[in-house]
Amino acid sequence: MARASTVGFVGLGVMGQPMALNLARAGTPLLVWNRSAGRAEPLRAAGARVASSVAEVFARARVVIVMLFDEAATDAVLGRGTPEFAALVSGRVLVSMGSNAPGYSRGLAADVHAAGGRYVEAPVSGSRKPAEAGQLVAMLGGDPETVAEVRPLLAPMCRETVDCGPVGNALLMKLAVNLYLVTTLAGLAEAVHFADRHGLDLGTFQAAIDSGQTASGITRVKVPKLMARDFSVQAATSDAFNSTRLIADAARAAGIASPLLDLSSELYGESVGLGNGRLDMVSVVEAIEARTGAIGRS
């Protein structure tokens, strides 16, 4: 397999694994690595090669996609701040698809460029179900030539790609989208809680939602999960909470008020405190229920 035709993929978590599977099933010559080796086995079954190390991925692939949990994990896996970092990224295109702070991404891009590599940030909008269906939306940031080179590789994972300008802007756009998502989901959970505590039939509530202008992919997926108290993870509560903090940091840096975001952040944080960090973000309803319980005890 020629290095020029091989695409590397590092990070096979809740989102990364289905994303990489879509690449493999589309026939992309794929070389994957994950810290927990068992997560790579479905990729092997789908025809991808499994690397023994991150260094092997970068040695054999000219374009490497990373989809890692957070900034610390990204720095650790890439060996950022060590001589190994330059050896990995020199002559390569690094595509970062995780949700990190815009300032972090700009710094990582600068380090990649200084080492002789190129960089595109490509955070995605969507949770596990859209990831499985190849229906994510990628926001792209970077120099136009490199973005144009990377865009076709994303097609098996993403139904749309949106150019956002220079590095940092794609992540800012992702934060703006996530602000809408996390506040909407918290409001939806509160609405279900309100209807349930008033003794309304939740099936009828769902029909009312789906028949009106508030219907969306979010309501069609998340209302049934709330009704069934199905907290199996599609987008984790801890990830939603982390996203609210990234958004708040960006808002404060620009002197922007974010009242709905701030309340939603409190609720997701309370849900994490209840032990729901790795459950789906609809578990925020338990934080709302806990507040209702506190009213009843007062």
Sheet of most strands: 6 strands, parallel
Whole-angstrom Rg: 20 Å
Report the uncertain regions.
none
The computed structural class is alpha/beta
Helix content: 55-70%
Q: What attributes characterize this protein structure?
A:
298 residues; alpha/beta; six-stranded parallel β-sheet; 56% helix
Question: Can you describe this structure?
Answer:
The protein is an alpha/beta fold and 298 residues long. The protein is built from 14 helices and nine strands. The chain has helices spanning 16-25, 41-45, 54-60, 71-78, 83-89, 102-114, 128-133, 144-154, 169-197, 202-211, 217-228, 237-253, 259-276, 284-297; strands at residues 7-10, 30-33, 49-50, 63-66, 93-96, 118-121, 124-125, 136-140, 158-163. Strand 1, helix 1 and strand 2 form a beta-alpha-beta unit.
Summarize the structure.
The protein has 298 residues and is of the alpha/beta class.
Sequence-ordered SSE layout with sheet pairings:
Elements: E1 7-10, H1 16-25, E2 30-33, H2 41-45, E3 49-50, H3 54-60, E4 63-66, H4 71-78, H5 83-89, E5 93-96, H6 102-114, E6 118-121, E7 124-125, H7 128-133, E8 136-140, H8 144-154, E9 158-163, H9 169-197, H10 202-211, H11 217-228, H12 237-253, H13 259-276, H14 284-297
Parallel strand pairs: 1-2, 1-4, 2-3, 4-5, 5-6, 8-9
Antiparallel strand pairs: 7-8
Helix pairs in contact: 9-11, 9-12, 9-13, 9-14, 10-11, 12-13, 13-14
